[in-house]
Design goal:
Length: about 600
């Protein structure tokens, strides 16, 4: 019999057109009456048997007017879905699901499923079982499964026997990855440090104390790999696709395991990336309280601390015109309230509070009162200083300059602009700067330039260690892997005598195409190794002394009595004119730039 059935080719079967079967090919025209053969949205009257009239044909949907049912006369969109799954094991019933109400799952052996477990049913489907619910994640959308429903549409029972059971990730998030150790430059193990040796002493300080490395929570734990042209690429195994407080807490545990395994003691975050925003300020604050309480507990237990924390004043649409520089008074007040809450709850867990003004700037000067906005920004910072003092928070306040992106022009353009702003408004003693390397290059400077500008103004507070791509003009936030750049950065840090209580925060993300959990480790390892090489190179330069000598010699004409008079501001123009007449044409020495470059290279 089977053999005989096989003898009919699909072409012949498709050609059968009889009254009891729907035709193989349905040609629709505008105005044609049709009947739906599947349940799409029963509550809205779009179900198996609904008669409709076609109004318009789109590439992906058909617009129809319903003729029968409880919502007759309404306009509905019917998706033109392919009913045949191209994943052989993916049940057709599931592939048809367009809303969570439409899903039915037969949990034949639910008795065997442990509570609090997550199962990867397929690549894009996860089943999460907890005490009071069973949830299904389908392409990261949460579908709640009602166990009491009549199990009509079926998940093939055989699938359940092949489910891979795993824990709810309250324990180990990075199984198989041990604590990263220093193995030296000859090691070929990607999960080892080749240069960063935490306890090794360089120029009188342990490496770990020069760097005070930190993991940026937003990139490492909230980065999805999405870009303006493409969907998320990262699906970390501990994520359940929700933005719940429960998920936020699990992610926090993952963060502590991650920094522990990397041998890092610090991390950085925004309020809204550690805890979900809420429908109201009260709800958002309650979420933050709950997650921070866990972070505090874990910090104490693991002896970790936050390098810097901040409030996210750029993501929510309310901040579209700015936060402290918004044209709307209510937004200014909301931003103040958010910073106030952040300061209160971070108080005991952070070293530094950072202000980054992604929306503090303008898109057009035609509709902008720049003077007023800058005055508002200064008032906002003054109020933050006052509040910090009021509550007795004695951490450092930093401003992180960035010239643009997302705003066309950001007021904290670069280190020089920001220090001028601080001076103008009498805030210079209250704030320092958080220099980010990719922001430096966006402003047309090198990171070394920005660090030197901050350093000579006594404003170097912290470094957001990352880099851009020389061929790309935006903030790509890559892990810094250029040994020469790292050496220049460390020249400034060593000249500054270190940056504690600041440190090096990896404000850097994996490339979109790197999606393995292991990549998170590798990226931080190479970032840490690169900075360690930079430090070691600076130690060589310091011991060698040739570069410092070159610079000293270059200015030696000022190491004289008259040079000292000039530097002390005691040489007026009449005096200098008298000297020029006495000396005649000055001799000018070579700048020795290539020699300086040769000396630097000998240390790399
Ligand atoms: C944006 C940036 C931010 C800040 C914190 O370019 O660097 O992540 O570091 O808001
Ligand atoms: Co940054």
């Amino acid at each position: 019999m089977e053999f005989e059935l096989d003898a009919f080719s699909p072409e012949i079967l498709n050609g059968i057109n009889c009254s009891s079967l729907p035709p193989h090919k349905l040609v629709l025209k505008v105005g044609a009456p049709v009947m739906l053969l599947r349940n799409i949205d029963q509550t809205n009257g779009v179900y198996n048997g609904t008669r409709m009239q076609v109004r318009r044909m789109g590439n992906h949907v058909i617009e129809c007017k319903t003729l029968t049912g409880n919502k007759a006369g309404s306009i509905v969109l019917i998706p033109r879905l392919n009913l045949i799954s191209n994943n052989e094991t993916l049940p057709v019933a599931l592939s048809r699901v367009t809303s969570k109400d439409g899903l039915r799952v037969l949990l034949q052996d639910h008795g065997h499923l442990e509570d609090n477990c997550t199962m990867n049913v397929f690549e894009n489907i996860k089943l999460i079982v907890s005490e009071d619910s069973i949830e299904l994640l389908f392409n990261s959308c949460l579908l709640q499964i009602d166990q009491n429903e009549n199990l009509g549409n079926i998940f093939a029972p055989s699938l359940l026997t092949s489910l891979h059971l795993c824990s709810d990730r309250e324990g180990e998030f990075f199984p198989g990855i041990n604590k990263i150790k220093y193995e030296g430059p000859s090691s070929k193990n990607p999960l080892s440090f080749k240069w960063y040796n935490a306890e090794e002493e360089i120029l009188g300080k342990k490496m770990k104390d020069w760097f005070r490395f930190s993991v940026a929570f937003w990139h490492t734990f909230r980065g999805t790999g999405a870009d303006p042209f493409g969907a998320p690429t990262k699906h970390w195994p501990w994520e359940d696709g929700t933005n719940s407080v429960k998920m936020a807490k699990r992610r926090m545990r993952a963060n502590f395991e991650f920094i522990n395994k990397l041998g890092i003691d610090l991390w950085c975050f925004h309020d809204r990336d550690i805890a979900p925003d809420g429908e109201s300020l009260e709800e958002a604050n309650a979420n933050l309280d709950e997650v921070v309480a866990l972070a505090k507990e874990l910090q104490t237990q693991e002896k970790k601390k936050v390098l810097w924390g901040t409030a996210q004043l750029f993501m929510h649409p309310r901040y579209m015109h700015g936060a402290a520089t918004s044209s709307e008074l209510g937004v200014y007040a909301y931003a103040a309230t958010q910073v106030k809450k952040a300061m209160e709850v971070y108080f005991h867990i952070i070293y530094i509070y950072v202000f980054w003004g992604g929306r503090e700037g303008y898109q057009s000067l035609l509709n902008t009162d720049m003077e007023r906005e800058l005055n508002h920004l200064a008032r906002f910072f003054e109020a933050a200083v006052a509040y910090k003092k009021k509550i007795g928070f004695n951490g450092t306040l930093l401003i992180e300059p960035k010239p643009q992106e997302p705003t066309k022009h950001q007021y904290d353009w670069d280190a020089a602009t920001t220090s001028n702003f601080l001076r103008k408004y009498g805030l210079i003693g209250e704030f320092k700067l958080n220099i980010e390397c990719n922001h430096a290059t966006l402003s047309g400077h090198s990171c070394h330039h920005e660090l030197e500008t901050a350093r000579i103004n006594g404003l170097l507070g912290n470094i957001d260690a990352n880099t851009g791509d020389p061929q790309v003009g935006w903030d790509t936030d890559q892990f810094l892997v250029d040994i020469q750049e790292a050496t220049m950065i460390m020249l400034s840090v060593v000249r500054n005598g270190g940056i504690a209580p600041g440190g090096f925060n990896f404000d850097a993300k994996l490339r979109r195409e790197s999606m393995d959990v292991e990549d998170l480790f590798i990226a931080h390892i190479i970032g840490m190794d690169t900075m360690a090489r930079g430090l070691k190179n600076v130690a060589k330069l310091v011991e060698d002394g040739a570069l410092a000598e070159l610079v000293r010699k270059r200015y030696q004409s000022f190491d004289t009595k008259i040079g000292a008079q000039i530097e002390a501001g005691k040489a007026d123009f009449d005096f200098l004119e008298k000297k020029v007449k006495e000396w005649g044409e000055p001799k000018v020495a070579s700048a020795k730039q290539e020699l300086a470059e040769m000396i630097l290279q000998s240390a790399l």
